[in-house]
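[recover] target loaded
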């Protein structure tokens, strides 16, 4: 199915790996030109080479620490006008409220919560001025189904769900759109690394990491490409009436007893 995105310019933050890189591949497959941002310059260079080798599109890289306001502003200046912004950069630690010092809360929220908000402030006005453009916020199911052991992430995600809805309501007057996706457990390098640590501790063998992923809907985690495909649809003209909505992708896991 043609998503009618050929020639669009897409900025993906956290685009060097995981869901961000999967999104980059999915948009490139639709003929979009890409701008990728990540603070890991080495991983970013590798992602750019991978994308250029797989797709006949332009790919630019902007190494940046998006937890810092001045770096977000530098990215905005370097990227120029974009048709689609995919906010994806973020790494919030697990733990209960007593486990995470307030400085770590602030550090984590500076990247994901305030990072998303600030980039929307920077890029949305141009979209509204030309009456076209889409922002896709990759958020997370913890914002919909919070738990004590991930309180920092759940609280931040809940804020971004509300932010996305409110911003979408305002943006529709200008013809722009703001949407979100809440992935549940998704198979990324980070997930596998954490599962290996768990397998080593519990089973004595990190190669048995897949055995630690229990109780998941359909018996498996989400593939990053599944989130990327949804992001492409939501950002495309085929999803033109979807706005202010955050789509939960958890296989209905939050409704199970």
């Amino acid at each position: 199915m043609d998503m009618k995105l050929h020639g669009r310019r897409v900025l993906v933050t956290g685009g060097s790996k995981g869901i961000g890189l999967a999104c980059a591949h999915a948009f490139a497959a639709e003929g979009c030109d890409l701008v990728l941002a990540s603070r890991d310059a080495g991983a970013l260079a590798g992602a750019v080479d991978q994308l250029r080798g797989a797709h006949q599109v332009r790919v630019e890289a902007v190494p940046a620490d998006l937890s810092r306001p001045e770096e977000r502003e530098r990215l905005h200046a370097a990227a120029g006008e974009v048709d689609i912004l995919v906010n994806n950069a973020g790494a919030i630690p697990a733990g209960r409220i007593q486990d995470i010092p307030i400085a770590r809360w602030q550090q984590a929220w500076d990247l994901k919560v305030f990072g998303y908000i600030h980039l929307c402030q920077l890029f949305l006005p141009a979209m509204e001025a030309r009456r076209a453009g889409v922002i896709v916020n990759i958020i997370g199911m913890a914002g919909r189904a919070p738990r004590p052991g991930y309180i920092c992430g759940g609280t931040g995600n809940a804020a971004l769900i509300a932010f996305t809805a409110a911003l979408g309501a305002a943006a529709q007057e200008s013809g722009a759109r703001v949407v979100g996706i809440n992935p549940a457990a998704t198979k990324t390098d980070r997930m596998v690394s954490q599962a290996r640590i768990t397998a080593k501790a519990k089973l004595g063998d990190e190669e048995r990491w897949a055995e630690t992923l229990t109780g998941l809907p359909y018996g498996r985690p989400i593939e990053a490409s599944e989130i990327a495909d949804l992001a492409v649809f939501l950002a495309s003209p085929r999803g033109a009436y979807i706005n202010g909505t955050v789509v939960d992708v958890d296989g209905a896991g939050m409704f199970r007893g």
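[recover] notes: The longest strand covers residues 177-183.
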